[in-house]
Amino acid sequence: xxxxxxxxxxxxxxxxxxxxxxxxxxxxxxxxxxxxxxxxxxxxxxxxxxxxxxxxxxxxxxxxxxxxxxxxxxxxxxxxxxxxxxxxxxxxxxxxxxxxxxxxxxxxxxxxxxxxxxxxxxxxxxxxxxxxxxxxxxxxxxxxxxxxxxxxxxxxxxxxxxxxxxxxxxxxxxxxxxxxxxxxx
Length: 185
Prior knowledge:
The protein is an alpha/beta fold and 185 residues long. The protein is built from 6 helices and 11 strands. The chain has helices spanning 2-7, 18-23, 35-42, 45-54, 64-67, 169-184, and strands at 27-29, 59-62, 72-73, 86-90, 99-104, 106-107, 122-127, 129-133, 139-145, 147-155, 158-161.
């Protein structure tokens, strides 16, 4: 993830302190791991991230990073960042889990993160859970894999993708470049 961000123009550091977060122009929560373990790793940074979001700093959550925006997850215990009401649920048992591979985005609401991204474009997924936002207005794109789920969300300064832009070839880099533009304005 760090390399992909640097490739599109970010000077990225892996922050682990409140001071590093306060000095950042944006926050990217990457997408590898387990909900409970990620919450444990965030520790005291959880409240700092919420405060920065309230202050308007742009935040991008990728896969698990997006799932952390919600209250809870079927994947484990703990309260997420609670930036959005909703929860994360397991993919249904009638599909192969984890969902790994290329799938399409059905854009349901255009926004800056998906600027110039064509409807039905292919992106790369690796996940076992997906978010179910209570406020459907935050959903920007959906994907169908046995069921239809939110694959991109946005509200104000908070953006999320259930897919991995850093693994989604040129299209993913375009999405990350769009995030750079959001941060620069």
